[in-house]
Amino acid sequence: MQNVVILGGGVGGTLVANLISRKIKKQIDAGEAKVTVVDETGQHVYQPGFMYIAMGNEDPKSLRKPERQLLDDRVELVIGEVAGIDEEAKTVSLADDSALDYDFLVLATGSRILPEAIEHFEQEAHHFYSEGAALKLRHALDAFTGGKVVVGIAGMPYKCPPAPLEVALLIEAELRERGLRDQSEVHFCSPIARAFTIESVSEMVTPELAKKDIELHTFFNVETIDSERKVVESLEGEELEYDLLVLVPPHKGAQVLMDSGIAPAPGGWLPTDPKTLNVGDRPNVWALGDATNLPLSKAGSTAHFEAPVVAERVSAMVQGRKPHAKESIYTGKVMCFFEVGDGKGTLLRFDYENPPKPPKPSRLWHVGKIFFNKTYYRIVPKGRGGTIEKRL
Amino acid sequence: MTALDLETTPTTTIDARGSFCPGPLMELIRAIREGQVGDTLAVISSDNGSKTDIPAWVEKAGHRLIGVFPHEGYDEIAVEKLK
Q1: In total, how many domains does chain B have?
Q2: Which of A169, A211, A271, A284 is 20 to 30 A (C-alpha) from A322?
């Protein structure tokens, strides 16, 4: 029996499990192979929807589904917390003292947020990286009657790189719609030299910020929050007063990966081969999604395009064959929508070699994003994304 | 020529080769946060943007740029933490 163990039931873990189970159907049915997903909660959450709880009318319930419903019947689901990985013994131990043997291990453990890493963050700053935080931000926006809005980033890398810019643009649009724009300032703080890491996207969005009178502060790495003076301070020595503070919290990889010596501290991101997605020099361990150290967006889309590569490589090893050349190399493909406010959006599509060339913001891409959000559960986790992708 | 020819041995050397923007800058920022005033930090980067982004950040953040030293396939950017 060959055991494939996948840690994490997010976009990457779920999709890769379904793709592998399809490819090695015969071996599973013959009792020669087994695919197991380990997930802490057993609930799949569509995280990009959190921003729409804060910025729109998204119903939190529509973002969750039982993981079991999304997995192929041939995939086993274990609900439990991973306590450790013993690479020598090839076992994954769980918090309930049980253990799973593996021959092939896929790490789709995602990233976690650490608002508590910055003093006063939890009392003073809002974010949209959990259902509860997004609801709290929505309530704060509802109660907002004008003042200084500061949107910033308190640590890189973080999930969904365009999200803070989108939030700044969407808040600005909302304030205008509500007649509060004249009595408000909107500031966007970027930790780097420009508005966004990718130059072409920066070139697209910087004029949008200027047009909407959103003040851009570059090289603003959030250092401290002064809760008495209501001021956020940067490492670079800049201070900004706020009435409403929205910050991306610091992110890290899974603690268990650091504790097991697979991912280095302090970030806990897995050293991942950019093409094969193997972790370090381990031939039987792969990573995908937020968990990797690849210089790509930490986004569901990245996991979506990485999953077929991992699935092909794992399946080839189970079946004792060479992986198909075309399907087993990740090209760095990522595709995501980018909201610019006023019902308009654009599309970022890129890979390792080709930076994105975002089309002029239009209603089409905003509608595209909403459509994708609504149809995610029917297409992505089950591996039906190819059709949509070909149409874009 | 390297930073070593000009100054004392860097307190910290950050080998960020293979990492893309903003990786090398973020690594430097982390090391600056963890370091002591007077420390010298050398960032080794193969990303072309680093030789402009890092000096610009160093100026804004009020540290001292010791120099940018080009090598075959990478640059070494040396910085002194001033505060």
Answers
A1: 1
A2: A271
> Helix (H, G, I), strand (E, B), or coil: what is residue A154?
coil
Residue to mutate among A198, A216, A218, A221, with most B CBs inside 10 A, is A221
Q: Indicate the pTM of the whole model.
A: 0.91
Q: Choose among A244, A231, A45: nearest CA to A129.
A: A45
Concatenate the DSSP letters of all residues of A282-319 into one string.
Answer: -TTEEE-GGGB--SS-BSHHHHHHHHHHHHHHHHHHHH
Task: Indicate if the pLDDT at residue B5 is higher than 60.
Answer: no
pLDDT for the residue A382 = 82
* C-alpha span between A42 and A10 (Å, rounded): 10
Lowest mean pLDDT among A16-20, A181-185, A301-305, A358-362: A358-362
Pairing mode of beta strands B74-80, B64-71:
antiparallel
User: Is B11 noted as a catalytic residue in this protein?
Assistant: no
The structural domains of chain A, ordered by start, are 2-110+254-336+365-391 (3.50.50.60), 114-250 (3.50.50.60)
- Per CB-CB distance under 8 Å, the chain B contacts of A193 are 52-53, 56-57
Closest CA to A240 of A127, A123, A124: A124
Q: How far is B45 from chain A (nearest CA, A)?
A: 14
